Amino acid sequence: MKKHKIVILDGNCANPGDLSWEEFEKLGEVTVYPYTADGDVVERAKGADIVIDNKVNITAETIDALPDLKYIGLLSTGYNVVDLDAAKKRGIPVCNVPAYSTMSVAQHAVMLMTALAARLFAHANAVKNGEWGRSDNFCLFKGEVTELCYKTLGIIGYGSIGRAVAKIALAMGMKVIACKRHTCATDKGVRLVDSLDELLNEADVITLHCDLNAGNAKMVNADFLSKVKKGAILINTARGGLVDEKAVRQALDDGTLSGFGADVLAEEPPRNGSPLTGADNCIITPHVAWASREARSRLLKAAKANIDAFLAGDPINVVY
Questions:
Q1: How far apart are CA 147 and CA 118, in angstroms?
Q2: Which residue, 257, 272, 267, is CA-closest to 222?
Q3: What is the per-residue DSSP string for 184-230?
Q4: The CATH homologous superfamily of the domain defined by 4-98+293-311
Q5: Is 191 buried (19+), middle (13-18) or exposed (0-12) by CB count in 10 A?
Q6: What is d(CA 120, CA 128) in angstroms, rounded to the nearest whole number?
Q7: Where in the chain is the domain with CATH 3.40.50.720?
Q8: How confident is the model over 190-230, as pLDDT tens digits?
Q9: Which residue of 46, 77, 124, 289 pairs with 263 in a disulfide if CB–CB is 3.0 to 4.6 A?
Q10: What is the mean pLDDT of the chain?
Q11: Which residues participate in catalysis according to the annotation?
């Protein structure tokens, strides 16, 4: 079997050391870089016929500078980091990994929702800093605790993750609604509403599970927030670009939202900070909803299967 030269540009995203690249190494020479700056891609990928990428930009210029490149594999579902037109022009398949983290992201979204409803961190920190120990009463309230049973969850983006969240919410006794124009299928117990405005008006909790595109960038803006039920909780485990962070901060400050939880921000990592820093009842996690060990293990297995299919002459999960 021909030995291949495989370069993994940013391996630490999917495998920070707790998993193995052994299956990839069976195919040939494998070089794994923890991280790669965009400007270093050509030098590092020189001579490779297979390049594996997560979040490093692979531009048309990069593709043109790599004459040996035959295949680009993604350690992600998203593929916006690759110039697809340039790859297609060269006949280079670009293959992603869909649906590997559905349950992990759904779990994370529900975790954010329940933590915000319970004001979990405010209460836990009150114990940690000794405030409860100094309390005159047997209990200590650091904000209103909300019971989610019988509350209404509005799901924007009813794909595989949205459906998984719906099933968990229904099991918790919540009512679940989804907007028709953000939905291709429904499950028992989920009610479709005619418009986004109707969803915003009814939902006690709103969770985003839609793709980011030119038509919905910053869809959560001042106008969107003016239509939500007062005191609603908003969750975003989809894409940071869906949210106008300044508008959300204002909504938290004036009580329009009682809580906001996100695993994504407009800038990642947020080197320039975020308007959401320091907001009350706001939980931001560092884009790890997808990253359970189980999900990352499935990711590597599927990425290897994509390569095997390509080498067999029948590539799968091609995104153009």
A1: 8
A2: 257
A3: S---TTEEEES-HHHHHHH-SEEEE-----TTTTT-BSHHHHTTSPT
A4: NAD(P)-binding Rossmann-like Domain (3.40.50.720)
A5: exposed
A6: 12
A7: 4-98+293-311, 102-284
A8: 999 999 999 999 999 999 999 898 899 999 999 999 999 99
A9: 289
A10: 96
A11: 239, 268, 287
**Cβ burial, residue 85 (10 Å; 0-12/13-18/19+):** exposed
- Cut 0.90: pTM above it: yes
Residue 249 to residues 216, 223, 225, 240, Cα–Cα distance (Å)? 19, 14, 11, 14
How far is C-alpha 197 from the chain's CA centre? 24
Q: What's the token pair of residue 298?
A: 């499935």
The two tokens of residue 272 are 């320039």
What pLDDT is attached to residue 66?
A: 98
Query: What is the number of other CB atoms lying within 10 angstroms of the CB of residue 280?
Result: 14
User: Which regions of the chain are under pLDDT 70?
Assistant: 1, 182-185
Structure tokens at 228: 């939500």
Token pair 């983290």 in the structure block, residue = 101
pLDDT of amino acid 187 = 81
At 141, which amino acid appears?
F
d(CA 175, CA 242): 24
235: left (phi over 0), alpha (psi -120 to 50) or beta: beta
**Please, what's the b/e burial string for 115-151 (b: 16 or more CB within 10 A of its CB; e: otherwise)?**
bbbbbbeebeebeeeeebeeeeeeeeebeeebebeeb
Classify domain 102-284 by CATH number.
Answer: 3.40.50.720
Please report the pLDDT score of residue 180 as a whole number: 80
Q: Report how far residue 130's alpha carbon sits from residue 199's, in angstroms, rounded to the nearest whole number.
A: 41
Residue among 207, 184, 11 at smallest CA distance from 108: 207
DSSP state of 149: T
Pick the closest to residue 267 from 245, 283, 237 (CA basis).
Answer: 245
Tokens linked to 318: 């091609």
